[in-house]
Amino acid sequence: MPVEITILAWSMVLLLVHIFAAAHVKTKQYGPKWNMGARDEKLPPLHPLAGRLVRAEANFKETLPIAIVALIGVVVAGKTSEWTAMGGWIWLGARIVYLPLYAAGIPVVRTIIFLASLVGILIVLWPLLTV
C-alpha cells in the first residue's frame, strides 16, 4: 500500500481529534444538554479556547480536501515517489503541530507551521501538475 494512503488514514484520525477537541470544549461551556439537543437556541460567544479550536477545525477542513485530492491523485496517476511521501508527511506533521499552537493562541509560529503544511501539499501536487 502506498504511504500516501497511510498519510490519508492518519489525517482522518487528526480530523476526529479536531472534531472532538472542539466539541469537548464547547460542551464544557454550554453543557451536555446543549450537546445532545437540537442546538436551536441562541448562545453566548465561545470562550477563547473553544473559539480557537473551532477555527482550527474549520481551517483543517478547508485544506483537507486539497490534501485528499493530491494524495489520492498521485496514487491513482502512479506518480508516487519519495517526494510525494515526504510532502504528505510534511503536511500531516505540520497539521498535527498546528492544532496545539492554535489552541494555545500562538500567532506567528502557527502561521509559519500553516505555511509549511501548504508547502507539503504543493510537493505532493507537483507531479500532478507537470507532464
Automatic annotation (TrEMBL):
It comes from the Bacteria. The chain crosses the membrane at residues 6-25, 63-80, 111-129. It is found in: Membrane. GO terms for cellular component: membrane. Keywords: Membrane, Transmembrane, Transmembrane helix. Its main location: membrane. SUPFAM superfamilies: MAPEG domain-like (SSF161084). This is MAPEG family protein. It comes from Sphingobium psychrophilum.
